Amino acid sequence: MKTLVMSDLYPQFCHRLEEFGYKIIPTKNINTFHEPERRHADMQLLNINDRVFTLKDCKSKVGQRYPENVRLNCLYFGKKLYGKLNAVDPAVLDFCAENGIETVNINQGYARCSTFVITQNAAITADKSLEKALKNNGAEVLLISPGHIRLEGFDYGFIGGAGFTDNGTAYFFGNLAQHPDYERIRLFCKKQHVKIEIVCPEEPLTDIGGVVVMKE
Length: 216
Known about the structure:
three-stranded mixed β-sheet, L-arginine/glycine Amidinotransferase, Chain A, 5 helices, alpha/beta, single chain
């Protein structure tokens, strides 16, 4: 049984994933962050191979304001780390240097929540700087329109916070079919031989702050 670390703000998503056989560990409520971000897994944890970074590992200040809130919100993808490097915590950068992991600087500080990883060579994003950086490093990228994703307290959320991929299945929190780029997303996943599973289709597509899949 695999373990997922994720927000339980919408317990219906947790319960449905438990029915799929996952064990759920709820994220902590981090009062330092703004209310909508306080339970977001992609703000609290970063998994690089077998190393899991938490906010306690951070060497620099973690605060409410950007960029102090995105110390761990970087993207490990295709054996490279993407992020706004002057915002990424030094503990993460030191680990990458020690382990020969290339780092790629981008303008988007919310790199992880802006990117839905389909495979380790294919991703979906609405951020053009991320699209460019990933493509420049050989990845297949589907650029979608921004918006159309619920995030309490904001006008809209990010696609990377609205699901996760595991064992050949992309799980989306809420009704992906209502997204204007649904058909393009469906065909992109099909091309990568990844199945789509809509978790709780009665809910709108929702950014819950992503999911950290813990290795068995």
